[in-house]
From TrEMBL, chains A, B:
<dbReference type="InterPro" id="IPR036291">
    <property type="entry name" value="NAD(P)-bd_dom_sf"/>
</dbReference>
<dbReference type="InterPro" id="IPR016040">
    <property type="entry name" value="NAD(P)-bd_dom"/>
</dbReference>
<dbReference type="Pfam" id="PF13460">
    <property type="entry name" value="NAD_binding_10"/>
</dbReference>
<feature type="domain" description="NAD(P)-binding">
    <location>
        <begin position="8"/>
        <end position="193"/>
    </location>
</feature>
<protein>
    <submittedName>
        <fullName>Sugar epimerase</fullName>
    </submittedName>
</protein>
Length: 217, 217
């Protein structure tokens, strides 16, 4: 059994992901949560939980990653938390999780990024969105230079629609919607397919099965 | 004559710095400003000006650095500009200036940082200051990995007092005040002394002459 640490487990993608991992045959989840009050959802799925805060030290996150085979970072400040959290969670929280992963001797890291985090995207974003794009840009850059077995997933516009299991997935795709449930499935498929190591791709709703789409990357 | 590009020339440290550079025997300043309306102060000093915005592309900054021997980054969002600008100027503006410096083939880069930009300082900062410390942390980290001849200056609490020319300067010093005018002198002394290449140091008001303090680093 491969054990997957999910940073941001209590988010919407995180909850789908832990659910799928717990249903899989060869993986189990360790849900990283900010407080014990968030534990019951994951305990009902039979998943392990660990309390660690992305705004605390690298060491406290590294401790959570001690018995782990792979780390998924799907935490996000969300639009509503204010610009402070953009730096502290989307950038600094991500980098601390990357450093904690290295420090725990874990190699595999899957990052849930934003749809387009290129330098051009920062320039083109409007003034209120640009700091978020920049924070995600630097988190992705840090990961690419971290000597980890990374995969960076760039989802389209996230919805709470039920997943279809069908996507359009490639280094560059046209911007479109995708259900959070399908992003969780893409993460799972990426963890199961080592072809995704060292790769990054955009993903939106489409017509290809997720397994096939991930295999063809 | 060595020509120094000053990014953030219209700031308080920047204006002192351009003044000192223009008075020196072996350097001349090129003041990087956001708009032509800021030019007159520098033209009166006989300094060249170039209009370039840190929120624009790397290329536009690289063009400003074309005929340059060294770049000084002393731009800052300032406390009053809001958290958006922390990411866009203190982090992204700094990184774009670093990339522009490389792209223009310039090697020497002097960064005006914050007093303490270590990971510990981010953790210890209060919630409203932490994003600024984090932004400066990542800008400094980016510079250290950029293969440039860098110097990172970490000033204490900046004041508008007249400079004394006397400082306490070392990798670690006790936090204290320092006039902006003396920081400008420390930048000039660093540009004149290659012993500062690959070094970073804190600096506050003290009892040693700036030239001597920089020489002993």
């Amino acid at each position: 059994m491969k054990k997957i640490l999910v940073a941001g487990a209590n988010g919407q993608i995180g909850k789908h992901l832990v659910t799928f991992i717990q249903k899989s045959d060869n993986m189990e989840a360790k849900a990283m949560i900010r407080s014990k009050e968030q534990a019951s959802f994951f305990e009902e799925l039979g998943a392990e939980t660990v309390v660690a805060d992305l705004e605390e030290s690298v060491d406290s996150i590294a401790k959570a990653a001690e018995d782990i085979d792979a780390v998924v970072f799907t935490a996000g400040s969300g639009g509503h938390t204010g610009k402070d959290k953009t730096v502290m969670v989307d950038l600094d929280g991500a980098v601390k999780t990357i450093e904690a992963t290295k420090s725990a001797g874990v190699k595999r890291f899957v990052m849930i990024s934003s749809f387009d985090t290129t330098r051009e995207a920062i320039l083109e974003a409007n003034a209120s969105f640009a700091p978020y794009v920049a924070a995600k840009h630097y988190a992705d850059e840090w990961l690419k230079r971290a000597d980890l077995d990374y995969t960076i997933i760039h989802p389209g516009l996230l919805t709470n629609d039920e997943g279809t299991g069908q996507v359009n997935l490639a280094p560059k795709v046209e911007r479109d919607e995708i259900p959070r449930e399908d992003i969780a499935r893409v993460i799972l498929a990426s963890l199961e397919n080592d072809k995704t190591i060292g790769k990054e791709f955009q993903v939106v709703g489409g017509t290809k099965s997720i397994k096939e789409a991930v295999e063809s990357i």
